[in-house]
Design brief:
Shape: globular
Organism: Anoxybacteroides tepidamans
Largest sheet: 7 strands, antiparallel
CATH topology: Immunoglobulin-like
Pfam family, one: YabP
Structural class: mainly beta
Mean pLDDT: 83
Order of helices and strands: EEEEEEEH
Helix content: 10-25%
CATH architecture: Sandwich
Protein name: Sporulation protein YabP
Oligomer: single chain
Number of domains: 1
């Protein structure tokens, strides 16, 4: 089931880091919003653009809305940043996919 979370970032110059541990755990900072997610794909809006995470048995392990931190566990297949040209297409695609 798809869900949507707004993350309240304090400060406009928040840093963005992606830390992967053993291809099973991701810690992501600088998250502005969790657009959508399910067990195979997460779409996050970060301070550096949209980030798509694909994998298997993905779960949100932790969400810290005050600090803009998201932790995801599961088997990670790929991470991809979507540039400005692809953002609206991605939003439309995911909104159709998760309805």
């Amino acid at each position: 089931m798809s869900q949507h979370y707004d993350v309240n970032n304090k400060g406009s110059a928040q840093e963005h880091d992606v830390i992967m541990r053993g291809r099973r755990l991701l810690d992501i900072t600088g998250v502005k919003q969790v657009e959508s997610f399910d067990s195979e794909e997460f779409l996050l809006e970060t301070v550096m653009g949209f980030l798509s995470i694909r994998g298997q048995n993905l779960q949100m392990k932790n969400l810290d809305v005050d600090k803009g931190i998201v932790s995801i566990k599961g088997k990670i297949f790929d991470l991809a940043y979507l540039d400005d040209h692809h953002q609206e297409k991605a939003k439309g695609f995911f909104s159709k996919l998760f309805k």
